[in-house]
C-alpha cells in the first residue's frame, strides 16, 4: 500500500516509486513514529523528499522541530511518558529536506534504498467537493488537505498496535457487509456458539451427576399394608391406608412381566436407563405447559414412583434423569422391574401388581394369565379410564390398549401367534368396596396383632411399617358358622326397641383344636366398628362355675383328701347344704350360697358338678388347697396374672376374670388328656413375599396327668348328659362341658369340648353408652340367662356345623380308679367330717399307682398351732406316688399304713373333730386298694375371708 500526496487540483505525484523497498525479510518495514512526517513537512526543506543529504544529521533529542520536542508535532502531551519503541522495530524516517521539497512542490527523488517508508505531503486548495478520503481502484489511499495546511502524522499513519490493527480489519470486514447481511451471524459466530453450548451441556451433565445422589425411598413408596389370610389362604383382612403388598419378581407370572414390558418399555432389557429424546420431549412439554407426558423408560418410572414425587416439574425431571443413570449402574434389570411392578398404581386403590391382581381378578400375581396381565398392563397408562367396570363407556379404548399390549408381546416373541389369536378379553370382577375392619375382621386382626406383640414375635413398630403377609389359623367355614350361630341364638332374638336390657347383650366365643392349640374360630362381637371391645379376649367378666372343673382336676392331680380323709373322686360325698361354712380354712368364715339357695344335703362330686353346687366346690378348694388349685389352673392354660385369680376358697366359684380365649385354652388341655399347647393364632408370616418370620414352638406338653384330665372329662360328660348343659346334646357328638354364671347374672358361660374341638361361649351384659357391666335379667324375653341357655345353644349349633362331615369320635379316657362307676351318695364315702363321728373302716380310693413319680400332699393340718401331731404316711407299693400321711391333730393321733396288692392308700386318718376331744382314725384296709381313714381335723373360727363374692352364682 502507498500513501501518495496530491495537489490542489487532485493530481497525484507519480514520480515517486510505486512501492517502497522491502526489507530483507520479505516484510514491509514498520512505519515511522507518529509526528515524523509532520516535523519534516513543517521544515519545508527542499529536496527532503528525495532522501537525506550529506549534511543531514539527526537532530538531537528535544530539538525544535523533532518529535521529542516539547509541544512539537507528534510529541507526547506534557506530563505524559513518551511511548517506548519496541526493541528491534524498524524506524520510520523522513528528512526535513525531503519533506520540505515535497511541501514546495518540487518533484522528489526516489528515496534511498535504506529508507523503509516515504511519506509525501503537499499543500492543496482542499479536497474535491464531496470527497475526503477514499479508496481507489488500485487500492491506494488518497489523502487531500486544505490549501496551505499540512496533514498531521496521526491522520496519515497506519494503526500503531495489534489491537488497533484488529479493529481496523474488523471495520474493513463490516464495510464489505452492507444492508440486511450485517444482521446475520458469521460462520465464526455460529461455530463459537455451538461449541459454547456443547461445553455448557457437558459441564451441566457432570455437575448434575456429581450433585444429585440417590435419595432414600419416599414414605408413600415403602408404606405397605399387612395382609391377613385365613388358614386356606383366602383373604381375611387388610389393614393400613395403602393397599400395597410387595412380592418378589419370581412371584409374578412371566406373562404379567412381559405384558408390562410390552406396554411400557419393550426394549427394557437392552436399552440404557434413559431415552434422551423422550426425556427432552417430556421436559419441554411440561415446561411450556403443553400437558403432562411421560415418554420415560421403566427405570425412570420406577425412580419417580419410589424415590421422587409425582409432580410434573423440570426440577423433578432433572433429578429423575440423573438418579436413573446411577440406579441403572447399581441395580440389575430384574430388581428394577420388580420395584416398578410393586410401586405402580393400577386403579381401585391398588398399588403394586399383587394388590391389583386381587382387586381385579381375585388371584395372586403368580397366577395371572397373559390376557389378565395384558389388561393390568393396559391400566398403567390410564388406571381410572380403562377400568371397564367403573367406566363401561371406555371399554373400546381399553380393549384397544389391551390389543396393543398383546401385539407387542407377539412382536417380542413372548406370546405365540396362536395364543394371540385365541386370546379373549378378561372381564374383571365387580368392584368390591373395601370392608375395612367392619364385622369380625377388626376383632380378628386385633387379636392376631396382640398375639404377635404379646409373644414377642413382632413389635408394634414392625406392624406399623407393614409389608407382612400373615396366615392365621382361623378357618373361614368355622368362622362363618360361629357368626351364624350367634346370630340365630342371640342377635335375631333381641328386641332393642321394646326391651332396654336387650341393648346390653354381648357375645364372645373361641374354638380351639385341642391337639394343636390352634384357634380355629373367634367371635368378638356384633361389629368392630360399632363395638370396639373384643368379647373373646377381654378379661373383665367372672367366669363363674366354668372354673369348677379346675378344682376337681387339681384334687385328682394332687391326690387330695376331704376333711374326713377320703380321697376325692367323682363319687366322694360332700355336704351340699346352702350357705354351709367351709371347714379347714383358717383365713376366716366363708359360707357361699348355692344357686337359688337350694340345699342338696349329701351329694357326690359328680352330682355336685352336674348341678353346680357352690358349697361343695368351695369345700373342695379348701381340701385341695387354694394355692394348689391356682397352680393347676395356670398349668391348664390360664395366665398367672389373671385378674382376681387369688388363692382363697372363692376361687372355686369363678371369681377370676379370665377371657373366653383363656378358658378355651384351658378346656382344650382337658380335651387333650392333660397336654397343654399355648394357643396360637398364626400359622405363617412372611415379609414382602419371601422372608419368613420365625414363630415360637407351641407343641403341646403334659401339664397335668392324663388320669387327672380324663377323670375330669368323665365328670363333665355327665353335665351334658344329665346336668345343666343338656342343650349341648344338640351337637350330636359326645361332649363334655360346664356351665357358669357370674354374679348378678352379668355373664353366662358354657365351656365344652368334643374329642376334636374345644369351644367356649359367653353372653355378657354391658351398657353401650357407659361401658358398665349390666345384669341380663329379662334379656331376650327370659327371666334370666344362664350358661345352659343361649351359650350352650350357640355352642351346640356351632359345633354341629364345624364338625359336619367328620366321623363321630368318642372320648378315649384313662380314669381314676373307681371313677368309672356311679354310686348312690348314701352308699359312697362322705367327705363331710360331720357325717362320721366314729372311725371309718372302709376308706375311699387310694392314690393311683399308675401315675408314679409325683408326690401328693395329704389333708391339711387340723390342729391348732400349739398342739401339733404327726401321722404316719402310707406307702404306695403299686406305683411311685408317695402320699403324705395324716397331718397333726389337736392333741394326738396316729395312723397305721396298710399295704395292698396294687396301690396302697393312706392308713389311719387324722384325728377328727375340734376342741379337746379327738377321735382316732381306723386302720386302712388291706387288699387291692388302701382306703383313707377318718377325715382331717378342721378348725372353726370367725372372721371374714377377703375377695369373696356374696352374690348368687352358679
SSE layout and pairings?
Layout: E1 3-5, H1 36-43, H2 96-104, E2 134-135, E3 141-143, H3 153-156, H4 162-176, H5 187-211, H6 219-222, E4 227-229, E5 235-238, H7 254-264, H8 276-287, H9 298-306, H10 314-330, H11 333-343, H12 353-361, H13 370-379, H14 395-411, H15 417-421, H16 441-454, H17 460-465, E6 468-472, H18 476-489, E7 505-512, E8 519-523, H19 548-557, E9 573-575, E10 602-604, H20 605-610, H21 614-624, H22 626-636, H23 660-671, E11 675-676, E12 682-687, E13 691-692, E14 701-702, H24 706-722, E15 736-741, E16 747-753, E17 758-765, H25 790-802, E18 855-856, E19 882-883, E20 900-903, E21 927-929
Parallel strand pairs: 1-3, 4-6, 18-19, 20-21
Antiparallel strand pairs: 2-3, 4-5, 6-12, 7-8, 7-17, 9-10, 11-14, 12-13, 15-16, 16-17
Helix pairs in contact: 1-2, 7-13, 7-14, 9-10, 9-11, 13-14, 18-25, 19-21, 19-22, 19-24, 21-22, 22-23
Amino acid at each position: 500500500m502507498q500513501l501518495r500526496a496530491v495537489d490542489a487540483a487532485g493530481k497525484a505525484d507519480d514520480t515517486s516509486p510505486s512501492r517502497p523497498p522491502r526489507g530483507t525479510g520479505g516484510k514491509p518495514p514498520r512505519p515511522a513514529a507518529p509526528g515524523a512526517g509532520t516535523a519534516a513537512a513543517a521544515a519545508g526543506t527542499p529536496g527532503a523528499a528525495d532522501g537525506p543529504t550529506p549534511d543531514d544529521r539527526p537532530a538531537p533529542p528535544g530539538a525544535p522541530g523533532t518529535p521529542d520536542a516539547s509541544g512539537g508535532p507528534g510529541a507526547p502531551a506534557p506530563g505524559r511518558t513518551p511511548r517506548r519503541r519496541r526493541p528491534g522495530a524498524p524506524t520510520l524516517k523522513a528528512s526535513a529536506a525531503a519533506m520540505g521539497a515535497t511541501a514546495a512542490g518540487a518533484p522528489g527523488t526516489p528515496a534511498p534504498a535504506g529508507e523503509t517508508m516515504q511519506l509525501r505531503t503537499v499543500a492543496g486548495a482542499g479536497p474535491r467537493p464531496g470527497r475526503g478520503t477514499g479508496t481507489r481502484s488500485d487500492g491506494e489511499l488518497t489523502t487531500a488537505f486544505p490549501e496551505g495546511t499540512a496533514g498531521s502524522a496521526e491522520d496519515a499513519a497506519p494503526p500503531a498496535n495489534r489491537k488497533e490493527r484488529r479493529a481496523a480489519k474488523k471495520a474493513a470486514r463490516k464495510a464489505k457487509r452492507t444492508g440486511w447481511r450485517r444482521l446475520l451471524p458469521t460462520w465464526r459466530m455460529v461455530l463459537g456458539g455451538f461449541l459454547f453450548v456443547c461445553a455448557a451441556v457437558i459441564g451441566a451433565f457432570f455437575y448434575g451427576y456429581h450433585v444429585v445422589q440417590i435419595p432414600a425411598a419416599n414414605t408413600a413408596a415403602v408404606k405397605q399394608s399387612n395382609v391377613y389370610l385365613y388358614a386356606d389362604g383366602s383373604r381375611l383382612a387388610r389393614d393400613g391406608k395403602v393397599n400395597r403388598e410387595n412380592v418378589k419378581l419370581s412371584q409374578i407370572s412371566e406373562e404379567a412381566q412381559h405384558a408390562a414390558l410390552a406396554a411400557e418399555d419393550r426394549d427394557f432389557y437392552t436399552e440404557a436407563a434413559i431415552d434422551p429424546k423422550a426425556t427432552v420431549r417430556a421436559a419441554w412439554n411440561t415446561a411450556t405447559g403443553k400437558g403432562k407426558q411421560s415418554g420415560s423408560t421403566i427405570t425412570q418410572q420406577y425412580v419417580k414412583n419410589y424415590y421422587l414425587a409425582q409432580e410434573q416439574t423440570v426440577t423433578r425431571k432433572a433429578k429423575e434423569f440423573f438418579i436413573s443413570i446411577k440406579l441403572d449402574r447399581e441395580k440389575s434389570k430384574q430388581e428394577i422391574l420388580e420395584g416398578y411392578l410393586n410401586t405402580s398404581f393400577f386403579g381401585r386403590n391398588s398399588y403394586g401388581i399383587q394388590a391389583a391382581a386381587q382387586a381385579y381378578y381375585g388371584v395372586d400375581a403368580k397366577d395371572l394369565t397373559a390376557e389378565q396381565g395384558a389388561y393390568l398392563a393396559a391400566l398403567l397408562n390410564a388406571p381410572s379410564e380403562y377400568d371397564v367396570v367403573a367406566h363401561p363407556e371406555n371399554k373400546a379404548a381399553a380393549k384397544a390398549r389391551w390389543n396393543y399390549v398383546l401385539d407387542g408381546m407377539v412382536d417380542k416373541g413372548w406370546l405365540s401367534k396362536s395364543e394371540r389369536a385365541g386370546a379373549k378379553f378378561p372381564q374383571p370382577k365387580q368392584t368390591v368396596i373395601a370392608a375395612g375392619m367392619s364385622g369380625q375382621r377388626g376383632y380378628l386382626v386385633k387379636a392376631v396383632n396382640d398375639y404377635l406383640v404379646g409373644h414377642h414375635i413382632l413389635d408394634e413398630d414392625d406392624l406399623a411399617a407393614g409389608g407382612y403377609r400373615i396366615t392365621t389359623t382361623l378357618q373361614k367355614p368355622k368362622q362363618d358358622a360361629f357368626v351364624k350361630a350367634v346370630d340365630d341364638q342371640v342377635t335375631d332374638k333381641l328386641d332393642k326397641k321394646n326391651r332396654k336390657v336387650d341393648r346390653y347383650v354381648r357375645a364372645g366365643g373361641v374354638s380351639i383344636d385341642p391337639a394343636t392349640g390352634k384357634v380355629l374360630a373367634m367371635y368378638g362381637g356384633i361389629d368392630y366398628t360399632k363395638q370396639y371391645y373384643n368379647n373373646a379376649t377381654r378379661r373383665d367378666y367372672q367366669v363363674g362355675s366354668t372354673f369348677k372343673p379346675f378344682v376337681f382336676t387339681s384334687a385328682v392331680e394332687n391326690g387330695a383328701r376331704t376333711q374326713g380323709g377320703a380321697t376325692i373322686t367323682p363319687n366322694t360325698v360332700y355336704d351340699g347344704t346352702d350357705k354351709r361354712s367351709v371347714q379347714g380354712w383358717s383365713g376366716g368364715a366363708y359360707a357361699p350360697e348355692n344357686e337359688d339357695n337350694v340345699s342338696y344335703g349329701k351329694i357326690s362330686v359328680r352330682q355336685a358338678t352336674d348341678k353346680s353346687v357352690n358349697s361343695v366346690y368351695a369345700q373342695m378348694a379348701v381340701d385341695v388347697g387354694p394355692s394348689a388349685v391356682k397352680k393347676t389352673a395356670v398349668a391348664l392354660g390360664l395366665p398367672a396374672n389373671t385378674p382376681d385369680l387369688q388363692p382363697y376358697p372363692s376361687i372355686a366359684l369363678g371369681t377370676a376374670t379370665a377371657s373366653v380365649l383363656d378358658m378355651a385354652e384351658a378346656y382344650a388341655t382337658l380335651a387333650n388328656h392333660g397336654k397343654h399347647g399355648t394357643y396360637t393364632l398364626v400359622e405363617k408370616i412372611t415379609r414382602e413375599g419371601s422372608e419368613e418370620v420365625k414363630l415360637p414352638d407351641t407343641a403341646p406338653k403334659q401339664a397335668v396327668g392324663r388320669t387327672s384330665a380324663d377323670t375330669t372329662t368323665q365328670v363333665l360328660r355327665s353335665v351334658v348328659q344329665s346336668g345343666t348343659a343338656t342343650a349341648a346334646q344338640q351337637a350330636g357328638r359326645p361332649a363334655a362341658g360346664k356351665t357358669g354364671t357370674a354374679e348378678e347374672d352379668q355373664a353366662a358361660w358354657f365351656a365344652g369340648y368334643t374329642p376334636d374341638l374345644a369351644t367356649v361361649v359367653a353372653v355378657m351384659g354391658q351398657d353401650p353408652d357407659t361401658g358398665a357391666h349390666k345384669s341380663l335379667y329379662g334379656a331376650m324375653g327370659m327371666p334370666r340367662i344362664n350358661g345352659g341357655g343361649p351359650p350352650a345353644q350357640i355352642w351346640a349349633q356351632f359345633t354341629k356345623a364345624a364338625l359336619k362331615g367328620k366321623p363321630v369320635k368318642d372320648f378315649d379316657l384313662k380314669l381314676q380308679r373307681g371313677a368309672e362307676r356311679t354310686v348312690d351318695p348314701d352308699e359312697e364315702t362322705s367327705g363331710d367330717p360331720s357325717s362320721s363321728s366314729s372311725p371309718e373302716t372302709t376308706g375311699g380310693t387310694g392314690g393311683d399307682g399308675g401315675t408314679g413319680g409325683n408326690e401328693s400332699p395329704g389333708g391339711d393340718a387340723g390342729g391348732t398351732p400349739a398342739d401339733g401331731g404327726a401321722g404316719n404316711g402310707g406307702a404306695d407299693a403299686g406305683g411311685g406316688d408317695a402320699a403324705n400321711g395324716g397331718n397333726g391333730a389337736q392333741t394326738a393321733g396316729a395312723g397305721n399304713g396298710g399295704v395292698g396288692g396294687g396301690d396302697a392308700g393312706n392308713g389311719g386318718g387324722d384325728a377328727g373333730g375340734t376342741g379337746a376331744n379327738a377321735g382316732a382314725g381306723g386302720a386302712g384296709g388291706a387288699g387291692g386298694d388302701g382306703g383313707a381313714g377318718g377325715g382331717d381335723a378342721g378348725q372353726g373360727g370367725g372372721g371374714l375371708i377377703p375377695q369373696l363374692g356374696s352374690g348368687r352364682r352358679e
